[in-house]
Structures are given as structure tokens and as C-alpha cells.
Amino acid sequence: MTDSRKNFTGVILAAGKGDRLEQKMCKALVEVAGYPLLQYQLNFLQALGAKEIVVVTGCQGEDVARLAKRLLASVRVASNKEFQKKGNLPGLLAAFEATDASVLVMNVDHLYLASKRMSVTTFFGETISVFCDFKEKLDPDERGILLGEDRYIKKIDKHLDRWDCGCVGLTYIPASRREAYLRAIPATLEKLGDDTGYENVLQTLADTGEQVAVADVSGICPIEIDYPEELVRARAVVAEDPAAFGIARI
Hey, how many other C-beta atoms are within 10 angstroms of the C-beta on 187? Predict the structure, then answer.
């Protein structure tokens, strides 16, 4: 196992309110099969062997931080004080302040199959990599990716007319490329303002010649939870086999 596969920090973006989910709590605290979404992500990163985990809080920040510490005493908490903005870039920047290691960034609302998770670290190297699923149809809120002839990312957006694959809520940023990422932020903010997500910076990088790779982990993420009907489905699917998603049965 290479050092890059061991020496990385897992970053969970858990600051969002999740208004579209129509729950009375922020998304990180919403339960699926008796467990909060945050626990699924913590379990995932622990199984991958993250040397440390940073949870980015915002909405109900004290509650999320308290839960994170209860679930994993060694977890580090970073506060996104701008969580009410539409974009999640401030959350990643808060995490950057908490660690100088390579980071695997993940959203709190994706559920991953335990049987496929170990394939993730095989893509860790010196290139920024977006983890993707090559499939016939994208979900309504899924971010699509169009590849260039060199097979690096050409376009990454939720509203592409043509695409080759869809994002699964995981992005790897090696420490060696962090400065390049940070340099691309001002141009991205100038274009998008408060709508800037950390993924939008990847488009700026691609536009300026930075190689942004795709990591094919097709099938790893059968569930993303943005809307009430997706939560209902997730609860039904996971309840049948919690262990498939890295959770011990209650």
C-alpha cells in the first residue's frame, strides 16, 4: 500500500440544511434504518483507513459536532460559518484549515456499498480525481461529466447536454495539487458568486489546463438522498440489508 493510500484526511461536508428533503433537521442528522447519515460516512472513511476525519458543520452545528464526537472521539470538527450560501466551497476551505494532508471530500447524503468501497483508494495518486459512475442515465440532481479526448474532465456540471459519467459525491485532492486548486478559486467566485460549489472549481481547473481525472467506481453509490421520495426509498432499501451499506443491524 502506498503512502498516499494511508496518509489522507477524510472530509465530510455536513453543513447543509437540506431544505429539499423537507425534514425538521439538517441532513446530517436524518436517520436511515435507525442511523444518522453522518454515521454512514464516518464508517465509510474509517473502513478506508483515513488517518483523520474532519466533519464540516454549519446548520445545527452544535448538534452535528456533538453527534460526530459521540460516534468517533478522534474526529475533528470545522465550522462553515457561511453554510447558508448556496455553494459548499466555504465548507471545503474550512476543512483545508484543519488539515494539510491530501483529502477525500464526500457529501453527507450519499450511501455507498461496503463491498465496493476499497476500490476507492486504488485511485489515490498525484492527480485531482472525481469518482464517477458510468451508466446510461443520470439522476435529476446528479452532476454529469464530459471527458475530453485525453480522457480527463472537460466539463463537469448538473446541466450538460452530453455526458460520459456522473459524480458519486467523492473527490480526491492530493496535497501536491492543493495550491493549484486554491489558485483557481478567485476566477470561479468571480463567475458564480455565492453559487460556487467546490466542484465548480474543478471546472475552472480543467478550463485552464489542469488535469482532473475520473475514477471509475461504477455501482458504488446506489442511493443519493435529496428529496423526500429518495429518503423513503433509501430507508426501505437499507432496512433490508444494513450491512451492505456498512452498518450493523440493530
Answer: 14
Separation CA 174–CA 123 (nearest Å): 11
CB 214 within 8 A of CB 153: yes
Backbone angles phi, psi at 54, to 5 degrees: -115, 125
Phi, psi torsion values for 204, nearest 5 degrees: -60, -40
Closest by CA position to 153, among listed 131, 180, 179: 131
Res. 247: pLDDT tops 70? yes
Helix locations, the chain, DSSP H? 3-6, 37-48, 61-71, 89-98, 178-183, 185-192, 198-207, 228-240
Residues 6+ apart with CB under 8 A from 220: 112, 113, 116, 117, 119, 120, 131, 133, 168
In degrees to the nearest 10, what's the CA dihedral of 212, 215, 220, 222? 40
pTM of the model: 0.95
To which residue does cell 440544511 refer?
17
Name the grid cell of 188.
470561479
pLDDT over threshold 50, residue 209? yes
Say which amino acid occupies 68: A
Task: Note whether 38 and 67 are within 8 A (CB).
Answer: yes
